[in-house]
Amino acid sequence: MENSGIIKIEKLSFPWQTQDPFLFCVHHEDFFPKGNKDLGPSASLEGRMIGQDFNIKDGWRMYHGSKVPGFPAHPHCGFETVTAVRTGLVDHSDSLGAAGRFGNGDVQWMTAGKGVQHSEMFPLLKDNEENPLELFQIWLNLPRDSKKVDPHFAMLWKDTIPVHKYTDANDKTTEVEVMAGQLGDDYAPKPAPDSWAAKSENEVAIWHIKMEPGAEFSLPTSQNKINRNLYFFQGENLKLNDADLPHYHSAFLDARADIVLKNGDKEARLLLLQGKPINEPVVQHGPFVLNYPAEVRETIMEFQKTEFGGWPWPSYENVHDKSRGRFAIHADGREEIKE
C-alpha cells in the first residue's frame, strides 16, 4: 500500500487512534431524550452505572454525570483539547472562573498548559423534544517548551469557520470545514496562541469533509513528511485512488502522495487530522501528558496540593442557566455573546 500513498487502513476503535502531534480523538454521538428541570434526561436512570456510564442504552450515555450527561470537573495538564460540536450544546466551566455554552458547529480550543480543571456537561435544554448531541474531542500534544504555559481557551464560533467548497467535473460537491490549517484560500481562525497549530510550518489541519454521493475530491499534497490521518465515519463506500476504504475505518496517509477521494452512493463524512510530529517523548497518565515519568509524578502532587486553582462553581457538574444562549466568559473577564 505504501507506494500508493496509503500507509495503513484499520478499523476504528474507541478512542480513534492518531499520530504525533495528536494524542487521540473521540467521536461522541448520543440521541438524548427530552430534558427535565435540572437539564438532565427526562427518563429513568435505572440500570445505568452512574458515574461511569459509557454503554449505549436507549441511544445515549450519561458518561461521568449523575444528573446531567457529561464530564464533571477534572484536571488536564501538558496538552490541548479541541472540541468540535456538530449538534447539541456543551456547558464549559473551569478553575480560572471562565465559562461558556457552545455548540451546533462551534469549536472550543483549550490549552491546558501548566494545569487547569474544567467540566464539560451536555445540558438537555429542550423539554418538548429530543436533544441529539454529536461532537469530536481531539487531544493535541504540546511541545516541551509549551507544556507549562498559562491555561487558555479560544472560541472558534461557527460563523468564523470557513467552508471550502469544491465542485468536480460531474458537478458533485465536496464541502470542507477548515477548523485548523488552510485549504486553498480558506484559512481557519487562529487557534490558542501557544498551540503547536499556531505556527503554519507545523501544517496542523483539522478538517470535516462532507461529500455528495458520487463526488471526487483530491487531497492537497505537502512537500514535507507530515502525519495525516483520515477517518471515514459516515457513508457507505469510498475509495482512496483505487483502494477501498470501508465505512468506519481510518487511513494513515503519506501527505506527499496524490490521493483522490471517490465517494460511493451515499453522502460521506470524514475527519482529517494532520500535522508535523513534535518528536518528543510522551508519558501520559490519564489527563496528564508530560515528557518524563518524574514530571508526571510532580504534576500529580501539584494537583493534589493546589487543585490547579480550586473549583469556584457551585457544582462539579456545573451547568448554566437554561435561558442562556451561546456565550463565552474568559478568565480575564472578556465576554462573547452569540445569541
UniProtKB/TrEMBL annotation:
It comes from Marivirga sericea. It comes from the Bacteria. It holds the Pfam family Pirin_C. Belongs to the pirin family. SUPFAM superfamilies: RmlC-like cupins. CDD domains: cupin_pirin_C, cupin_pirin_N. Residues 207-309 form the Pirin C-terminal domain. This is Pirin. Residues 65-140 form the Pirin N-terminal domain.
